[in-house]
Write a structure and sequence with these properties.
The complex is a heterodimer of chains A (about 325) and B (about 325). By secondary structure, chain A is of the alpha/beta class. Chain A contains 10 helices and 14 strands. In chain A, helix 2 (about 45-65) packs across helix 10 (about 275-290). Helix content of chain B is about 75%, strand content about 0%. Chain B has a two-stranded antiparallel sheet with strand order 1-2.
C-alpha cells in the first residue's frame, strides 16, 4: 500500500507540475493582447484546415490579436463542444468555428455568446440563430460561372463538353449544374453540353465513366467535374490515354490531388476556394465583431486587411468571393 | 498474513479510493489557483454535463470489472440508442416511449453480450470488441452520416439547464440517485458480495453457491440499459441523434473505473473511488483545455494516468512479496 501511495502521489505531483509549467509558460505571451480569438476547425491534422489556420494567424498578427487553434482529433460535433465550452469559460473575444453539425453544437454556441463571445462560422455553417456571422467560401453562381469560364477558355470557346458529377441526387452539384446549363444557353452559344454522367464520388466509378464518355463522344473537347473525386479520377484516366492534351479536364479540385496532373500537362487550370484566405477573412470578421465595427446585420461593411472591403449579406453571410483558380504558376504554394 | 498494525483511521485513509479522492482534490485546488478561467461559475456546470455519460456508464462497468470481466461495447450502445431514439421520435413516437424502447434495446444489446460471456463461456474482451464494431455499425448504418434533430426544447433544455441559480445542472440529481443505487447494490447487498466473490475466484464463488452465470448476465444487461440511457441523454444534450455519437468513450469509462481503484483482475472496487476517477479525468481535461493544451497531449496525460494506475499496484505488490520473502529467509 505504501508504494502505491508513493507512486500515485508521484503521478499527482507530475500532473500538477505539468499544469503549473503550462500556465507559467503562457503568462509570457498573449495575455496582454486586447482581442483573443479561438479557431476551432472540424478536426486537427487536416491539411485544409491547417491552410485556414495559416490565414487566421496571419490576420491575428496584423491585428495584434491572440489567435489560438484548438480542436478534436475526430471530426464529430460532440467532440467540438468541450472546446466551445472552454472558449466561453476563458471569456475569449471570439470563436471562429467550422461546424461538424448544424444544430448539435448550437446550445454550446448560444452559451458562449451569452458569456460575451462572438461566434463566426466558416467553411461549414450552423443554423443562423447560433452564430453572428457565416463566412461563406463561394456562392453557387460563382462556382458555376468560374467552371464555365475555365472550360470555355481551355477549349477555345467552342465544341462539345460533358459533366462528370458526384451522385445523381447530390444537392450542391445539381444546383451548380442547373446554373451552368442556364448560363451555357445564354452566354456560350458555341459550346454544347452533350452529356452529364454521375461517378457517385467514387474513384473507380468516376474513372470508368470518364472512359465511357470519351468513347461515346469522339468529338468531346472538355470534361467539367464539379467534385474533387471526379476531377482527380478524370485527370488520372486522361493522363495515361491518347486524349492527353486533346481533351481539357477542369472543375473543382484540391491542389494535392491535382498536382501531378497539372505538372504533366493533363490539366491546365481548375478551381476551388483558397482556404488560407477563408481563415484570414473569418478571423478579420471576428475581430470586426469584437471591436464593434459590425454586429452581423445585413448591409454592414468592414475592411479585412489585404482582402479589402466586405459587406454582410442576407442571413448574416459574408462571401469570400469568386472561386480561386489553381494552375501551374501557383499550385506549388498550396498544400491541402 | 499482515497484521493490522496501523490504527483504524490510517487503514480507512490509506485506501486506493482515498488516494484517488486526494489526487482529485489536489488537482482541483491547483487548477483553481493556476489555471485562468477554471475558478469561474461555468466550470462546474460544464464538468457535470461532460462527465455525466461517462459517469453513468462507469457505474455498471465498475461491477463488471469487479467480476474480472469487461464491456467494451458501451460507447457503441450509446450510439445505437441515440440513433434509435432519434428515428423513433422522427417516426412520430412520443419521447417517453422512444426513451423506453431505446433503453430496452440497450438491455437487449447487453443481454447478447451477457449470454455469450456467461452461457457460451467466451471471454468478455473478445465478445465486446466484436459487439463494439457490430453495434456501432448498426448505428451508423441506420442513419448514415445524417442526423435527427429538432427535439422539443423542453427536453433538450432539461438535459442542460441548471438547478435554479446554482451552477449544478438538473441532471446532477439523477446522477446522485444512480450513484446511490449502485453503491448500495455493490456494497450493501448479497448481489454485490457475489460480484466481488466472482472477481476473487469464479470457481470458489460457484462452489459456495453463487449463480455466476446469472450474475454476469444481469450485469451485462444493466450495462447495456444504462449505456442506452446515457445515449438518450447524449442525444438530448447535443440536440442531435447521430450514429457516431460518443465514439471512443469506452476508453474514458474504463480509464475512470481503473483510476478509481477497481482492480482490472476483479475482486476489489468501490463506487466512491470510481466517481472520483470520473471527476479526475473531467477536471484534468477541463484544466488542460483551458491551458490551450492540444487534444493529443490530453490523451497522453489520461493514458499515462491509466497505465500508472494499473501498473502501480502490481509493482507495489511485487515489491512487497519480495520484501516479505527476504525477511522470511533471514529468520
Amino acid at each position: 500500500m505504501k508504494f502505491t501511495s508513493v507512486l500515485a502521489a508521484g503521478t499527482a505531483a507530475v500532473l500538477v507540475l505539468g499544469l503549473t509549467a503550462c500556465s507559467s509558460s503562457e503568462e509570457g505571451g498573449g495575455a496582454t493582447d486586447d482581442v483573443s480569438i479561438t479557431v476551432l476547425p472540424k478536426n486537427l491534422g487536416n491539411p485544409y484546415f491547417e491552410a485556414s489556420m495559416t490565414g487566421a494567424q496571419e490576420a491575428g498578427d496584423e491585428l495584434g490579436a491572440a489567435v489560438e487553434e484548438v480542436g478534436p482529433d475526430a471530426a464529430s460535433p460532440d467532440a467540438q463542444v468541450p472546446f466551445i465550452n472552454t472558449a466561453a469559460q476563458q471569456g475569449r473575444g471570439a470563436l471562429v468555428v467550422s461546424a461538424n453539425d448544424p444544430t448539435a453544437i448550437g446550445d454550446a454556441l448560444e452559451e458562449a455568446r451569452s458569456a460575451g463571445t462572438k461566434v463566426v462560422t466558416f467553411d461549414s455553417d450552423t443554423e443562423p440563430q447560433f452564430r453572428d456571422l457565416f463566412v461563406n467560401q463561394a456562392s453557387p453562381e460563382g462556382i458555376a460561372d468560374k467552371q464555365l469560364e475555365l472550360v470555355a477558355d481551355q477549349i477555345g470557346g467552342e465544341g462539345e463538353i460533358a459533366i462528370l458529377s458526384a451522385s445523381a441526387n447530390a444537392t450542391n452539384q445539381n444546383a451548380w449544374i442547373a446554373l451552368m446549363e442556364e448560363k451555357l444557353a445564354s452566354d456560350y452559344p458555341d459550346i454544347e453540353l452533350v452529356e452529364t454522367v454521375y461517378g457517385d464520388d467514387d474513384d473507380q466509378t468516376s474513372f470508368d465513366k470518364t472512359a465511357a464518355l470519351l468513347q461515346s463522344h469522339p468529338d468531346l473537347k472538355g470534361i467539367v467535374s464539379p467534385t474533387t473525386v471526379g476531377i482527380a479520377a478524370a485527370a488520372r484516366y486522361v493522363s495515361t490515354s491518347e486524349y492527353k492534351g486533346e481533351v481539357a479536364v477542369t472543375g473543382l479540385g484540391t491542389p494535392n490531388q491535382m498536382r501531378e496532373y497539372v505538372e504533366d500537362g493533363t490539366v491546365e487550370a481548375f478551381a476551388l476556394w483558397n482556404p488560407t484566405d477563408l481563415g484570414y477573412l473569418a478571423t478579420q470578421a471576428a475581430a470586426a465583431l469584437v471591436a464593434g465595427d459590425i454586429t452581423g446585420e445585413e448591409g454592414e461593411t468592414f475592411t479585412a486587411g489585404r482582402l479589402g472591403e466586405f459587406t454582410v449579406g442576407t442571413g448574416g453571410e459574408v462571401l469570400l468571393g469568386e472561386p480561386f483558380v489553381f494552375d501551374e504558376s501557383n499550385i506549388a504554394d498550396f498544400d491541402f | 498474513m499482515r497484521t493490522h498494525a496501523r490504527p483504524w483511521w490510517q487503514r480507512a485513509l490509506l485506501t486506493r479510493e482515498m488516494l484517488t479522492i486526494l489526487i482529485l482534490v489536489v488537482a482541483w485546488i491547483v487548477a483553481s489557483a493556476v489555471v485562468q478561467g477554471f475558478d469561474g461559475p461555468l466550470t462546474i456546470t460544464y464538468l457535470v454535463l461532460d462527465v455525466a455519460p461517462v459517469l453513468l456508464i462507469a457505474l455498471p462497468m465498475t461491477l463488471i470489472i469487479a467480476t474480472g470481466e469487461i464491456d467494451l461495447s458501451v460507447a457503441s450502445v450509446v450510439g445505437l440508442s441515440s440513433v434509435t431514439f432519434g428515428l423513433l421520435y422522427q417516426a412520430g413516437l412520443g419521447l417517453w416511449a422512444a426513451l423506453l424502447v431505446s433503453v430496452l434495446l440497450g438491455a437487449v444489446c447487453g443481454a447478447v453480450n451477457g449470454a455469450l460471456v456467461a452461457y457460451a463461456g467466451l471471454p468478455s474482451l473478445a465478445v465486446t470488441i466484436g459487439s463494439l464494431a457490430l453495434y456501432r455499425g448498426l448505428a451508423v448504418g441506420l442513419l448514415g452520416t445524417t442526423a435527427v434533430t429538432g427535439f422539443p426544447g423542453s427536453w433538450t433544455d432539461g438535459a442542460t439547464e441548471n438547478l435554479g441559480e446554482s451552477p449544478y445542472p438538473v441532471i446532477t440529481l439523477g446522477l446522485l440517485a444512480l450513484i446511490a443505487v449502485f453503491a448500495v447494490l455493490l456494497h450493501a447487498t448479497p448481489f454485490g458480495r457475489n460480484v466481488l466473490d466472482i472477481g476473487r475466484s469464479s470457481e470458489a464463488a460457484r462452489f459456495s453457491g453463487v449463480d455466476v452465470k446469472r450474475t454476469l448476465l444481469i450485469l451485462f444487461v444493466l450495462s447495456g440499459a444504462v449505456s442506452a440511457l446515457a445515449g438518450v441523454y447524449y442525444t438530448l444534450r447535443y440536440g442531435s441523434a447521430r450514429g457516431d455519437n460518443a465514439t471512443g468513450m469506452e476508453l474514458q469509462v474504463v480509464a475512470a473505473v481503473l483510476l478509481g481503484g477497481v482492480s482490472i483482475f476483479g475482486g476489489r472496487g468501490a463506487i466512491h473511488g470510481v466517481v472520483a476517477g470520473v471527476l479526475l479525468i473531467g477536471v484534468l481535461g477541463s484544466a488542460l483545455r483551458l491551458e490551450g493544451v492540444t487534444v493529443n497531449v490530453i490523451n497522453i496525460v489520461i493514458g499515462t494516468a491509466l497505465v500508472v494506475s494499473v501498473v502501480a499496484p502490481r509493482i507495489a505488490g511485487g515489491l512487497r512479496v519480495r520484501r516479505r520473502s527476504a525477511v522470511g529467509q533471514r529468520t
